[in-house]
Amino acid sequence: MRRIAFVASEIVRHGGAVLCAAVSPYSDTRSECRLMVGSDNFIEVFVDTPLEVCEARDEKGIYAQARRGTIQNFTGISDPYEPPVTPDIHLETVSTSAEANSEIVVRFLMDRGFLPRP
To answer: What is the mean pLDDT of residues 87-115?
Structure first.
């Protein structure tokens, strides 16, 4: 995560925009990343999906491998996940459709001035 944040901070420093989709299980690391990129430019999105739903949706069987111990240090199984306490955007994937969640993100980005209003 720190490497991703470093690269993102360099892109932002030079006027670019960055979207990073990564599992970041530790609160302290997310805080460090926010500092690296800058609070005004860092948007934490919590894609909130219960573990049992993640496992049910797992077409590749990665969670099953983690449960069997084939994959070590797997977030949510053998390694902890610290959910964000105050994410900038909180998306619920069970009760909200992908389309509705995308609208939440776009609206947030427009409200913050990252995207122009139509």
So the answer is: 97
